[in-house]
Amino acid sequence: MEASYDTKEGIAKSIGSLEELAKLLTKRRYGYFWKDEELKEFFILGRYRLDKRGNIDRLTGKIPKEIFPDFPDVMTSEDLIDYIENNPGGITRDDFKYGTFKYESMVIESGLKCPSCGLVWDISNVHEALIYRNCEWISLDNFVGQTLDEVIKKLNEKHDGIYDFGPSDHGDGEVIAQPNQSLLTSIIRLSH
Fold it and tell me: Do the beta carbons of residue 181 and residue 162 sit within 8 Å?
């Protein structure tokens, strides 16, 4: 029996919000990495590809939703090729074959806001976001007495990015924050 996260119907039920889409992606990754399931590739919302490993990529270059406004919300790769062959107007089978479609890794996390303007990203506008990945040193002066796991949790409550331990030796989340210490964090931000 196919898992709902690997069917057109199941995926269609999970693309109404970033929260639901994030849950879908978690299930797909779990199915691939922990259950050794072979996933199908899907194109969703005319802007994203769900790959066979549980990841999501944003299409760049020729965007089906911008060329075909009535583009279906969920399609398999085969459906997509059939659709573009039957709806001439800017995308061809060769666009897949010769790489006119480009993919960039996408971040889906509900509740994130643009750190510049405060706009909360949702399913209707997240495709406009620019993705920034960097590392920053965060002072622990405001977190004295808390574990590093608690610090990361508090930082993520700001919703201006996705914080995690950076590439350092601070990977032990049970370490207690002390005055005059800093923590190297890895941050992913979606911005305009």
Answer: no
Which DSSP letter does residue 72 get? Answer: -
The tens-digit pLDDT sequence of the chain (192 residues) is: 788 999 999 999 999 998 999 899 999 999 999 999 999 999 999 899 899 999 998 887 778 888 888 889 999 989 988 888 888 777 777 766 555 566 677 777 888 999 999 999 999 998 888 888 899 999 999 999 998 889 999 999 999 999 988 655 555 667 788 899 998 888 889 898
- Residue 187, beta-bridge partner list: 134, 163
pTM reported for the whole predicted model: 0.80
Complete DSSP assignment for 157-186: TT-SSEEEE-SSS---TTPBP-TT-EEEEE
Within a 10 A sphere around the Cβ of 76, how many other Cβ atoms?
15
User: Cα–chain-centroid distance for residue 97?
Assistant: 25
